[in-house]
Design brief:
Layout lengths: L7 E4 L7 H14 L3 E4 L3 E3 L9 E7 L6 H13 L3 E6 L3 E3 L5 H9 L24 E6 L3 H6 L3 E6 L2 E6 L2 E4 L2 H6 L9 H10 L1 H9 L3 E5 L11 E2 L2 E6 L5 H7 L1 H8 L5 E4 L8 H12 L4 E4 L17 E2 L2 H10 L6 H12 L5 H16 L1 H15 L8 H10 L15 H17 L4 H12 L6 H27 L26 H14 L4 E2 L10 H9 L4 H15 L4 E3 L2 E3 L2 H14 L8 H18 L10 H14 L5 H30 L3 E5 L20 H13 L2 H10 L5 H16 L1 H5 L2 E5 L1 E2 L6 E8 L2 E8 L23 E3 L7 E4 L5 E3 L3 E3 H4 L6 E6 L1
Parallel strand pairs: 1-2, 1-20, 2-5, 5-14, 7-11, 14-15, 15-16, 17-20
Antiparallel strand pairs: 3-4, 6-13, 8-9, 9-10, 12-13, 18-19, 21-23, 22-25, 23-24, 24-29, 25-28, 26-27, 26-29
Length: 859
């Protein structure tokens, strides 16, 4: 029988949180209601890794995390608690690092290495200096200058010679090791190394003999002959499409699955693979058809997962986006656009911004990848009319893709992929009409039927499939890691899986999305926070509150800008920070300001570190490749100053944020309940049992105080409900109310597993004065019923936020209609109170004790 979790809990392993730490936490997670540990990669990674995606050896457990025997001990404990393990795996890339034994073997043995074709390297590059070599762009300057400065050394280590550049150490090839004595007059490895370091001309000749080409790290923006993870040069991609590579890479995972130590797999960056469907079919066959299998996949709003993939679903970004938008007031979309334009003093159209950022990123940071694709295209087409335009046309067409990637794996392109290709061409012609002749040549390549020339057909399909591997990285870097930090209309939607261009959905849209989910991928993960999200799940809800108060928001921002104008400084002839960055900062503070109203030194430091990352990602006023330290200093000093308790800004900001945070807390509880009871598997990111007001990594990967959470949970379990509820609603800021909702709802789900794993989804309609403030649905399986009712968009209904948790002031005529076959009586899971329900539920009575509702009954 297929393993299906009832609730997963994401753990980020590192040297600071190991298997031993997890063992201590398992009893708490079981008590919380968690069925499955959802683990970050546990394989040998780069030393000191904080995330595990820089894998050095996929068949060895990382010693900084633990040992295989410790993992077996964990599995035994999990079996005792009837819990499972969902493992994150990384088939797309590995670390370009001395700790990578496969890569180092290639550096020593060259074509004789059994791993020579394991990595996605063009050993026959059209760049003369890269023929038979892989580029290694890790130097801080020109290689000849590095040698002249004496920064590149030859060192002896474990009977071998290595090239050493600061922390970088790569072995000399085996043939070079044999020949080096021709360059020196001494005996002994240590002495040989010293003489080679000093013999600069000899060192240059040695470099020419290696299977790697050391280069300035900037060169990878323009010339490269291996596929990287996005534009991270020290992550080198695999050719996992080769059966030999697939088999070798999955040896440990296969073993763990065969022993039933791992019940599920999450595939990282599925869009990077040459042929995702083929990979998933192999993985399903390798690990057992009953294994729970999901993929990390970012979908656009009108996009769906390929139905032919043998998976249970995705890691949950699309669900996050739907929840994010149902708590955003779409009525004020135009108002917020106008406010943004007035404040920044210009017009930013989102789609135009996205294209511009993607196109510029491709030309500035992925020029090498573009050249490689263009070379493939020229090889395929030969000399054709408008061939001089093809590279520019290819760049515009790739930047114009409306989704991450297509999934073409044959010359019979399916309807969905063809519509995406045609949309990309139409957009490309719109933005660059001067390139229409070259774009037409490219378009005809996709439109023409299969020919009788099999070599041509194979080369064409290879070109198609190669292009697909780079539209995803381009979207990620151009949109998520650039546009999301420059287009700031409402930053809660600048989120992985979401889109800043979407500004709210209504209840009908929500229900349609959930019905589709229930019919197509009912066991996909329901995520609201991950290790990759741009801000915490509760921080987003706080920012979403602003969507309900456009006039008040604009008035507040203008007041803050006037109060803080004297704190700006001039940098390069402009006032810093820019108005756009200042607007971004105020929204950030709305999302992450401590609920107790006390921004301590730790908080201020977190804000400053985040702002530096944000402006470098935005690449407008600073960037990673060339930091503008003067601008960054002006920005962080501005942030530090406005947070000072001596500034008037604090006195004005704190009453506003106190009110907003209460609305945000209500929406967060609603979001949490929807996540647990809607179709899909609720996923809890580590630490999110309490308020999650974090920012992007590394801020969202800070250590979690599990002992504190376990203590709070024990208190909740031991306190009578009539005494507990008032304490929770009167002290919202401490987060116990969120822990209570999570605990009660997930345990209820675990106790009624079939109701949620197999139960149908039934939208429920609200009627009355405040019907638009209500979101409700039922889950039904057999004679069991669960009914979820939450509030949304209540600012105009409840202008006094201080009373939100003492009873929502919803009109007495507002009710939820129940299906005819619903139970005649229901019990509230949170309060324990019974509700008589012949055909409808009046909300004015229901929400007096607690602001969200989960009802259970049998018909």
């Amino acid at each position: 029988m297929m393993y299906i979790p009832t609730a997963t809990y994401r753990i980020q392993f590192s040297k600071d949180f190991t298997f031993k730490h997890l063992l201590e936490v398992i009893p708490y997670l079981h008590d919380l209601g968690i069925s499955t540990i959802y683990a970050s990669p546990i394989f040998k990674s780069r030393k000191g890794s904080t995330h595990g995606y820089d894998v050095c050896d996929p068949n060895v457990i990382d010693s900084e995390i633990g040992r295989l025997q410790e993992f077996k001990s964990i599995v035994n404990v999990l079996r005792k608690y009837k819990m499972g393990w969902l493992q994150d795996i990384v088939p797309n890339h590995m670390a370009f690092d001395a700790g990578n034994p496969w890569l180092m073997d290639i550096f020593e043995q060259g074509p004789q290495s059994p791993y020579y074709h394991f990595f996605d390297i063009d050993w026959d590059s059209f760049h003369a200096e890269l023929k038979g070599k892989v580029q290694a762009p890790f130097l801080g300057g020109n290689v000849e200058d590095i040698i002249e400065k004496g920064e590149l050394e030859v060192v002896a280590k474990k009977g071998k010679l290595y090239l050493k550049y600061y922390a970088l150490e790569f072995p000399l090839s085996a043939s070079t090791q044999e020949q080096v004595r021709h360059f020196v007059d001494c005996e002994g490895l240590e002495e040989t190394a010293q003489q080679l370091t000093q013999a600069k001309e000899a060192l240059k000749k040695i470099l020419e003999l290696q299977y790697y080409h050391l280069a300035d790290w900037h060169e990878s923006d323009h010339t490269i002959n291996y596929r990287r993870f996005f534009t991270v040069s020290d992550l080198i991609c695999l050719s996992i499409q080769y059966q030999e590579v697939f088999d070798k890479h999955h040896e440990l995972i296969k073993n763990l699955c065969e022993q039933d130590m791992v019940q599920g797999l999450r595939v990282d960056h599925i869009d990077g693979l040459y042929n995702p469907q083929e990979y998933l079919l192999r993985l399903r066959q390798l690990t057992d058809v009953q294994r729970y299998l999901i993929v990390e996949k970012i979908l656009e709003w009108d996009e769906t997962l390929p139905r032919t993939w043998p998976i249970q679903g995705s890691s949950g970004y699309q669900f996050l986006a739907v929840l994010n938008n149902v708590f955003t007031k779409s009525d004020f979309r135009k108002d917020f656009s106008a406010i943004y334009h007035r404040i920044i003093g210009g017009v930013q159209q989102y789609e135009a911004t996205v294209f511009e950022k993607k196109h510029q990123f491709l030309l500035n940071h992925m020029r090498g990848e573009l050249d490689n694709l263009h070379h493939l295209l020229v090889q395929l087409l030969g000399e054709v009319e408008y061939s001089e335009q093809l590279k520019d046309a290819l760049a515009v067409w790739m930047a114009a893709h409306p989704v991450y990637r297509t999934y073409i794996d044959s010359l019979e392109i399916n309807e969905q992929d063809r519509s995406i290709i045609e949309a990309a061409f139409a957009k490309a012609v719109e933005v660059a009409p001067e390139l229409k002749p070259g774009l037409s040549v490219l378009y005809e390549l996709y439109a023409e039927p299969e020919t009788e020339d099999e070599d041509y057909n194979r080369s064409k399909l290879h070109f198609f499939m190669r292009c697909q591997q780079f539209t995803g990285p381009l979207a990620a870097k151009g949109v998520e890691d650039t546009t999301f930090y420059t287009y700031n209309r409402l930053i809660s939607h600048n989120e992985v899986g979401d889109s800043p261009d979407v500004f709210g959905i209504n209840s009908r849209d929500f229900h349609q999305s959930m019905k589709n989910r229930w019919m197509n991928f009912p066991h996909s993960l329901n995520a609201t926070a991950t290790h990759d999200t741009k801000r915490g799940e509760d921080a987003r809800m706080c920012v979403n509150v602003l969507s309900e108060m456009p006039q008040e928001w604009e008035m507040q921002v203008r007041e803050w800008m006037a109060l803080n104008a004297d704190l700006k400084t001039q940098v390069d002839g402009e006032m810093a920070p820019s108005t756009n960055d200042e607007y971004f900062l105020y929204q950030t503070l709305v999302g992450v300001f401590p609920m107790d109203g006390q921004p301590d030194e730790l908080f201020r430091n977190r804000i400053k570190e985040y702002l530096i990352k944000a402006v470098r990602e935005g690449k407008t006023n600073s960037k990673w490749s060339a930091p503008n330290e003067a601008y960054e200093s002006a920005l962080v000093n501005f942030a530090e100053s406005i947070l000072s308790d001596k500034r008037t800004f604090r006195n004005v900001f704190q009453p506003f944020i106190k009110r907003v945070s209460l609305y945000g807390a209500l929406y967060s509880l609603s979001q949490l309940l929807l996540k647990i009871t809607a179709p899909g598997i609720p996923d809890i990111y580590q630490g999110c049992e309490l308020w999650d007001l974090s920012m992007v990594d590394p801020d969202n990967r800070r250590p979690v105080d599990f002992s504190h959470r376990a203590h709070l949970l024990k208190e909740l379990q031991q306190t009578p409900i009539d005494m507990l509820l008032p304490k929770l609603t009167e002290n919202v800021a401490d987060g116990r109310i969120k822990l209570f909702v999570l605990y009660k709802a997930i345990c209820f789900r675990r106790d009624h597993e079939k109701l949620f794993s197999d139960g149908r989804y039934i939208p429920l309609m609200a009627s009355g004065t405040h019907a638009g403030k209500v979101l409700a649905f039922a889950r039904n399986h057999g004679n069991e019923w669960a009914i979820t009712i939450v509030a949304r968009l209540v600012v105009d209904m409840a202008p006094d936020a201080s009373t939100l948790f003492q009873g929502l002031p919803i009109a007495e005529d507002t009710y939820v209609e129940l299906p005819a076959d619903a139970p005649l009586s229901l019990v509230d899971v949170f309060t324990g109170y019974a509700t008589g329900t012949p055909d409808r539920i009046h909300l004015s009575r229901l929400w007096k004790k607690f602001p969200i509702t989960l009802l259970y009954g049998k018909s």
